[in-house]
Amino acid sequence: MKSAMAFNVVKWLGAAYLIYLGIRTLLSKTQNEMKVARSLDRKMLRKIYRQGLITNVLNPKVALFYLAFLPQFISEAVEAILNAKKIETRTKRIADVVDRLAKRNA
User: Fold this and answer.
1) Class of residue 101 by CB neighbours under 10 A (exposed 0-12, middle 13-18, buried 19+)
2) What's the rounded Cα separation, in Å, for the pair 53 and 41?
């Protein structure tokens, strides 16, 4: 029982810290950084995207993260397709919020 409580405390502290880091990063963006981001052309953006995609696909830590993270959101009582749709919807919502915050601070 104690280890379950300790796990929950660490989990929520970690989540709060990640939220803090995200908000701090979004709010600390300076005007110079925004000008540089706007000046990037499409070719450069594609190169950066491709590099990030390859890095994440070949990184075994990404797979380990998903194996550790996703089971919390998967219910055995629900079909796999519904679980996948639920995770997809949550991911899209989070991405939309981050995108709106980034545009608001741009």
Assistant:
1) middle
2) 18
The Cα–Cα gap between 46 and 42 comes to 6
For residues 23 and 15, give the distance between their C-alpha atoms in angstroms, rounded to a whole number. 12
pLDDT digits (tens, 9 = 90+) for 87-99: 889 989 999 999 9
pLDDT per residue as tens digits for the range 45-64? 888 889 988 888 888 887 78
Question: What 3-state DSSP class applies to 32?
Answer: helix
Residues in Cβ contact with 22 at an 8 Å cutoff, skipping those fewer than 6 apart: 98
Assigned token pair, 68: 């550790």
Q: Encoding tokens for residue 5?
A: 């409580």
Which amino acid belongs to residue 4?
A: A
What's the rounded Cα separation, in Å, for the pair 16 and 10?
10
Q: What is the pLDDT of residue 63?
A: 79
